[in-house]
What we know:
The protein contains 4 helices and 21 strands. It has helices at residues 80-91, 108-111, 200-203, 260-266; strands at 8-13, 27-30, 42-46, 63-68, 71-77, 92-97, 100-105, 118-126, 129-149, 157-164, 169-170, 192-195, 198-199, 206-214, 229-230, 233-234, 245-253, 269-279, 282-301, 304-314, 322-327. The strands form 3 sheets. The chain has a 17-stranded antiparallel β-sheet that branches. A two-stranded antiparallel sheet has the order 3-4. It starts with 7 loop residues before the first strand and ends in an 8-residue tail after the last strand. The relative contact order is 0.19.
Amino acid sequence: MATRxxxxxxxxxxxxQTDIATAATTFLRFRQLNAxxxxxGFMTENDAGEIGKGDEFISASxxxxxxxxxxxxxxxxSSAEFMTWALCFGLGGVTEATGVYTIVPLDPCLNxxxxxxxxxxxxxxxxxxxxxxxxxxGCAIEDFLYEFNYGPGRQSGRVTVNWVGSGxxxxxxxxxxxxxxxxxxxxxxxxxxxxxxxxxxxxxTLLSGSIGWKNNLLVGPGFYPGSGVQNGAAIRxxxxxxxxxASLTFTARLLxxxxxxxxxxxxxxxxxxxxxxxxxxxxxxxxxxxVQYETVVNGEQDxxxxxxxxxxxxxxxVNGVLKVTAxxxxxxxxx
Length: 335
């Protein structure tokens, strides 16, 4: 027999793990667009280059376990539920009050270098049983990318998350994954966007853009003396973030009164408020506290002259780089 990829069930833990090695107990089930199964990342090495075996080939017992290194990508249309989940775990600094999340990057002086860990469960049924049933423990988000563009439908907003696991896993997972989350998709037609003093919705010129966050996880140092072993191969005992980076780009129609190039030359600094909304209780609002244009490039989109701007996301001395306010109807994310 065989099974189709549409039978895959993806469960992401709602709450954070108590530590990198202890599985979470509550899960959210999400759809995804990419047909990708998380690899176990089991790595081996061999003795082909070692001296004293009598030849240059791998010996009869010359293959050895090295490490577990699971990592995968989740590609989705942008819903308030999934974006809130991704931002809570991806930025790490989360407070929740009456269903509204305030999310900021972790402060290393106060919180250390480890993001909240989550558990990923993947299940694929086949022939009355399970062809695949894994739970990956101690996972952290490497990067997050939200892309918005012109046009109707859910394709106008898309989000991609890449995650890395500690290597610790359980098979079978032992996880009971609940029904699929009822997601509220936020179309670009419902956005409000004000960047560096200009309301691009009122101007009716914005075509597309993206917001990104990269944690640059220190995957190598996660393997250290005493980090742990599973089936004779090393697993990580920590996943710390490295130098983090925020990104913001956008493309707009170029008009006679467009001021992007003028602001580039003048070094104009402002804020960027980019809000994606389904309704009053389902939204994700991004506020970059200090932005300045780095590059401004003229081009064309569908035969219309355009301008593409790469924005420097600077750290404000008081408010930091980025603050996200989100609501999605799900309590306890990353708590």
